[in-house]
Every structure is written in structure tokens, then in C-alpha cells.
Amino acid sequence: MCHDGRVDTAADISQVTDAARRAARLLANATTQVKNRGLEAIAAALIERSDQILAANAEDVARGRAEQMSEGLLDRLALTPDRIRGIAEAVREIAGLPDPIGQVVRGMRTDIGLRVTQERVPLGVIGIIYEARPNVTIDAASLALKAGNAVVLRGGSAAQSSNRVLIEVCRDALTSVGLPADAITTVDPWGRAGARAMMRARGAIDALIPRGGAGLINAVFEESRVPVIETGTGNCHVYVDASADLEAAEAIIMNAKTQRVGVCNAAETLLVHADVAERFLVAALTRLTTAGVTIHADEATRAVVDGQPSIDAEMIVDATEADWETEYLSMDLAVRVVESVEEATDHIRRYSTGHTEGIVASDVAAIAAFRAGVDAAAIAINASTRFTDGGQLGLGAEVGISTQKLHARGPMGLAELTTTTWIYEGEGTIRP
């Protein structure tokens, strides 16, 4: 029974986790060359079977439209030939990255002659619960494989057709090069009961990573008995300082907001120093509203832009308290005028989810104050928030963006999917 009296409907997924553990033991001893062959096979299979993948994805997108899924979430869900090629290329990039397994984190010789090393080893079996992002299926599987882990996947029902085919493609690819298919498994056939079972699989799953909206992440974090690496939502801010190159700032906020709205590193709030508000806001909000962005403006912003002929008045609405704490994942942007970098960082610390915070400035002191004043997994200086991404930061594809402070923070690449073992060697040495 659950704590509230309901029957516990968690499924028996032991057949999946047992198979994953057997595969994990084999992968832990696999050479880099062998693991890379598996990754190359996955990349090739994605291209070869792209028609099958796209047909399955079309089913998911059609169902999403029928269920009135937002355009931002539909964009996350949708695959195209170019996106499949991009996913395949990300897999090949992972194959080309240094293998973290066996890396010496530190080493020393003690006073009594013990040779001590701390080396990276696989976590073992990683569980990943995620929403309508079919690319996550491949990113997660590929990163786990390279780091010597087996992975148990639970994708959202919105991408069920896409994920079924993608997992089949990956398993077939592994088998073709002599690796265990069960290195990549899924509990999707059990639906939500499978997800609940993953959260209860302490000892069978070594770490659980939720990737999705706040509701999913909070549910996993609160209910899981398995250690959780928390990935956070992205209420990301861009602060335009008085010292900013305003042309660059305009390009940055356009990119951060509109390039892809349904992602966690998209900007959701724009903060502008009062000294440049009049010069910056009219031009920036003209571009943003023309692009289809609804502006949730504070009073000071409205005082600048109301009545401007270049700005459609219907695209400006009054900001509410709720706007400052909202991850829109849509063509919406909250805008506030601030009097100082300190006021900007105070606002960010109050409303930030700790994902990515950006500043546009040329003043070194302002940049230093911003860096010291915010607490985030990533800080963007004169660059778009959209760069908080494993691929963009040189890690290859990522399994998620961690906003916690233990073990992993920021984009989680290969190293973040490992733990360490201490090895000490003596010569018949005993403790004095």
C-alpha cells in the first residue's frame, strides 16, 4: 500500500533490471574500441533506418497535435531528417571523446609507501525518466554506453512510438557488433507503473536521472528510493548592463529567446539597466514582438515602449508576480528594468532555478559582481544562454543539465556518468 492508502501499482521490472545488471558487468570490462564500435553501429543504424524512425515520430506528432500540445513541446517532440543526422553525428562525437573509465583522478604515495590512485569506474545501471524528447533516448543511451553503464529508459507517452523504434534500432545495432542488447532497455511497456518501479529499484538501479518539466523532476526527487541526480527547470535570465554593447545584447536576447523556445536553456526573463532602457528596449522589443514574442512588461518597461509605433501594443501585457517565476517554454518573455547589477542579481537569486544566468556587459566590475551575485550551474558572459549544452561546451551530447550541487552540476557528459574507486597498493604493508 502507498502512504495514502492507495494500492501500490509499481510493476515488477526485475527482469529488465536483472538483464541490465548483467549487461553492465560486461560493459564495465569492455575496451574503448569495443564500446566505440557499438556507438558507430548505432549512428549508422539511425541513418539507415531513418524512414522507419520518422514514420513512428509522425504518429507521435499527430497525436500531440490532436491533444493540443503546445508548439514548443511539439518542436521538442518532432524529428526531421536533419535532426536525425544531427543525433547520429552526436553519437559519433561521443565515440571520438576520451573514455573516462580508468582515468586517474588523483594519485599519491603515502608516508609509509602505499601507492594510492583514485580512478573513474562506471556507475553501473542508470535509470532515466524523461518526457517528449526522442533525442534524449539516443543521447542517454550513447553516453551511458561510452561510460560503461547499462541504461534503463522510461520515455514519456507522447513519444512512445518514436522511442519504441529508437530503442529497437539501438539494441539491434549493439547485437550486430557483439555487445549485449540489454545495455539499453526500457520499462515503457509498463507505462507509469514502470516509472514508479524504477523509483523503488534501490540496489537494482544505481542512479536515477529525471529529465523534463518541474512536475516530473519534483515527483521523481520526492518519491524515489534510488539516488537521484536532479536536473532542473530553466528559468533563465539575461541581464543587459549599462556598459553593454547594445547591438550584441539585442542579438543575444533574440537568440536566447527565439532560436528554440521549448528548451531549458532558453531565456525567460530580460533584465535591463535603467541607464540604457530607453535606447535598448524599443529596438529589442520591436524585434522580439515582430518575431511573435509576447512581452510581459513591468511598469518601467511599459513607460518606455507604450505608444511606440514599431511595437504592436497587443504583444505587450502587464507582468505579474507569477511571470518572474515562470519557465514559459513558449514565445513569451518577462521584462523588467533594474537600477543596478545588484538589483539584477537580487531578482535572479529570488526567482532563478539555478540553471543558466547571462550578462551582457563590458565593465569588468559589473561582470565580477554578476558572477559573485548569482548561483547557477552555468553563467553566460556576453553570450546566449543557449550554449548551456553538452555538445556546445565540448562534452559531446549530454544526458541532462544538473542544477544540484552534489556529484554533477551543469551539462552531464561522460565524466558525470561515472563514480570512482580508490586503489591502494602495498608490499605486504600493514597499518602501524
Quick recap:
By secondary structure, this protein is of the alpha/beta class.
What features would you describe in this structure?
By secondary structure, the protein is an alpha/beta fold. It folds into two domains: 232 residues, 3-Layer(aba) Sandwich (Aldehyde Dehydrogenase, Chain A, domain 1); 152 residues, 3-Layer(aba) Sandwich (Aldehyde Dehydrogenase, Chain A, domain 2). The strands form four sheets. The chain has a seven-stranded parallel beta sheet with strand order 10-9-11-8-7-12-13, with helices on both faces. Strand 4, helix 7 and strand 5 form a beta-alpha-beta unit. It is globular, with a radius of gyration of 24 Å. The N terminus is likely disordered.
Q: What's the topology here?
A:
Layout: H1 14-28, H2 32-48, H3 50-66, H4 71-77, H5 81-96, E1 104-109, E2 115-122, E3 125-130, H6 134-146, E4 150-154, H7 160-176, E5 184-186, H8 191-199, E6 207-211, H9 214-223, E7 236-240, H10 246-258, E8 267-273, H11 274-290, E9 294-297, H12 299-305, E10 316-318, H13 321-324, E11 332-338, H14 341-351, E12 356-360, H15 364-373, E13 378-381, E14 401-402, E15 410-411, E16 418-425
Parallel strand pairs: 3-4, 3-6, 4-5, 7-8, 7-12, 8-11, 9-10, 9-11, 12-13
Antiparallel strand pairs: 1-2, 2-16, 14-15
Helix pairs in contact: 2-5, 2-7, 3-7, 5-6, 6-7, 10-11, 14-15
